[in-house]
Amino acid sequence: MYRPRRLRLNEQIRELVRETQLRVKDFIYPLFVVEGASIKREIPSMPDQYHYSVDMLSEEIKKIEALNIGAVLLFGIPEKKDTRGSESYAQDGIVQRAVREIKRVCPKILVVTDVCMCAYTEHGHCGILDEYGQVDNDKTLLYLSEIAVSHANAGADMVAPSDMMDGRVHAIRQALDEDGFINTAIMAYSVKYASCFYGPFRNAAKSAPSMGDRKGYQMDGANINEALKEARLDENEGADILMVKPALPYLDVVRKVKDNTLLPVATYNVSGEYSMLKHAVNAGILPKEAIMETVLSMKRAGADLIITYFAKEVVKALNGN
Ligand code: PBG
């Protein structure tokens, strides 16, 4: 009788037959930018992650480039918020200035910007509210388009709408094309669940809604057909990359989306996933190899790209130190 061999006995053979490979270029590193000068301040809810003022970005971005990380995802935290989130599309807004600074220092780093209003509106919702206090989907599309164009104008290579309004990928694509930004790509937060795991981020971005929640526009964690529907809509509207967020509690969704699209799929290993693992590693409860095991699970589930606050340590491990 044929007896299958176990290929696990020898490290070289294990490497030869390994089915999933992590590449340095699979990782996108999120960065938070704040107003002010000379600021590099640790975010209390996210150990080892910082708020940077624009003047402090150059040092950080050079380190990121030296690690060979290919892309960063930018979030801005403005000083002034208003009902229209006007700082989000201001030509000299916080993100727009950060993009210019990063491109000045390291023109080759791919700059991706989060397109949303929640950090810029007084009420903390991801769009413009109507007279009943509900997000006005179609009015919000006009603002999102303006935000995306202002980011592209500052030099962003790719915009990542995270608001979950219907029709925003189409609206943004059209606005970018009309203004001549035909090469600016769109990574759509296509499948974004209303999740507890964004808690540490909302603390970092001061973007928790002041009333109500985001369940009216973010997805119900129980739904997977809806995820495929959202992914298909974004694909048809012209998205270049589809994203599933969060990652860990939704790896089945990553797989399903991957199997149902020809587009590259990204997953966002969000702040809550980061903080729980980081705390466990810092407390000596888990070894730091748990981080590699975690990001590997995302790749194995079908993610081509992984957005993670662990990007630097992962890449250091991949580079062998
Ligand atoms: C903005 C946005 C959020 C995240 C990314 N973009 C917060 C939210 O939807 O509440 C979360 C990222 C993270 O938790 O790391 N809408």
3D architecture notes:
Strands 1-4-5-6-7-8-9-10 form an 8-stranded parallel barrel, surrounded by 8 helices. Helix content is 37%, strand content 18%. The protein is built from 11 helices and 10 strands. The relative contact order is 0.14. The chain is globular and about 75 Å long. The chain has helices at 11-16, 57-66, 94-105, 137-154, 168-178, 199-205, 225-237, 251-259, 271-282, 289-300, 311-318; strands at residues 27-34, 40-43, 46-53, 71-77, 110-115, 158-161, 185-192, 241-245, 265-269, 305-308. With 321 residues, the chain is α/β, with parallel strands linked by helices. The model has no long low-confidence stretch (mean pLDDT 95). Bound molecules: ligand PBG.
Summarize the structure.
The protein is α/β, with parallel strands linked by helices. An eight-stranded parallel barrel has the order 1-4-5-6-7-8-9-10, surrounded by eight helices. Ligand PBG binds next to helix 6.
The number of helical runs is: 11
- Could you estimate the helical fraction of the residues in percent? 25-40%
User: How many angstroms does the end-to-end distance come to?
Assistant: 45 Å
Beta-strand percentage range: 15-25%
Give the strand order, joined by hyphens, for the main sheet. 1-4-5-6-7-8-9-10
Mean pLDDT: 95
Described by strand count, sense and barrel closure, the largest sheet is: 8 strands, parallel, barrel
